[in-house]
Amino acid sequence: MNHGSLYSGIGGWLLAARWASIKNVFTCEIDEFCNKVLDKHFPDTDRYNDIKETDFTKYRGTIDILSTSDPCQPFSFAGKRKGKEDDRFLWPQTIKAIQEIRPAYVVFENVPGFISLGFETVASDLEAEGYQVESFIIPACGVGAWHRRDRLWIIAYSDKNEYSELRKSRQREFSPELLGSNIRRFWNREYGPELRRNANGVSSKLDKNRWESLGNSIVPQIAYIIFEAIKEVHKNYENQ
């Protein structure tokens, strides 16, 4: 399976995809420090900077999973919570990229404050594009971290691609609940120290760039669980 990443940060989504043996195809990240990290650890991916200036149509039909962590500042309880009135609200750019790429799956992560200020817009826009939407609140402590760090995770599945024909031919209706049950099942498995590494805290000696990039990063252990669940659903359909 192929993975593309929007608002890639220091590569948490890409690390999770690597763990899940999913190919990382491209990143889109405007921050200079984060791009240096991406260049070091994921040098073989296509690199884009400003989502407002990027045309993703070259990837149409080639990306199975598109991940996105839209800027959280408009929704964070630590900020002014202007939501869609904040100039850092970039969902219109995100949905444009989704329309251009048409991925089979969209996986979205943001702060809990997004629920009241942006979720309805995101869900309705995804549904208008033919995606079925399911959401979860999953904390970092759920994978062994020593902090709570609640985050909203949205998983959307499209019926406007090759998988819809596969579904119809087998007379089996796909539903978000099927994917959700796989996520819950994977959540209850024992993953061991390899999955839990780096989830239990960071050094207090990090410089400002590293602190900020970690603060804005996803928990890759959670993304890994979601990716593995998606892979299993995909594999089940291929084997029927």
CATH level 4 superfamily: Vaccinia Virus protein VP39
What is the end-to-end distance? 18 Å
Total number of strands: 7
What's the CATH topology name? Rossmann fold
* CATH architecture designation: 3-Layer(aba) Sandwich
Task: Enumerate how many helices there are, as a single number.
Answer: 10
CATH class: Alpha Beta
What fraction of residues sit in β-strands?
15-25%
Rounded to the nearest angstrom, the radius of gyration is 17 Å
* Strand-pairing-aware structural class: alpha/beta
- Uncertain spans, ≥5 residues at pLDDT below 50? 161-176, 190-200
Question: Helical percent range?
Answer: 25-40%
List SSEs in N-to-C order: EHEHEEHEHHEEHHHHH
Number of structurally distinct domains? 1
What general form does the structure show? Answer: globular
Widest sheet, order of strands: 3-2-1-4-5-7-6
Mean pLDDT: 77
What is the element layout, followed by pairings?
Elements: E1 2-6, H1 12-19, E2 23-28, H2 32-41, E3 46-48, E4 65-68, H3 91-101, E5 105-110, H4 114-117, H5 119-128, E6 131-139, E7 150-158, H6 162-169, H7 176-187, H8 192-196, H9 208-215, H10 220-238
Describe the structure.
The chain has 240 residues and is an alpha/beta fold. The protein has one domain: Rossmann fold (3-Layer(aba) Sandwich), CATH 3.40.50.150. It is built from ten helices and seven strands. It has helices at residues 12-19, 32-41, 91-101, 114-117, 119-128, 162-169, 176-187, 192-196, 208-215, 220-238, and strands spanning 2-6, 23-28, 46-48, 65-68, 105-110, 131-139, 150-158. The chain has a seven-stranded mixed sheet with strand order 3-2-1-4-5-7-6, sandwiched between helices. Strand 2, helix 2 (32-41) and strand 3 (46-48) form a beta-alpha-beta unit. Helix 1 crosses helix 10 and helix 7 (176-187) crosses helix 10. It is globular, with a radius of gyration of 17 Å. The model is unreliable at 161-176 and 190-200 (pLDDT under 50).
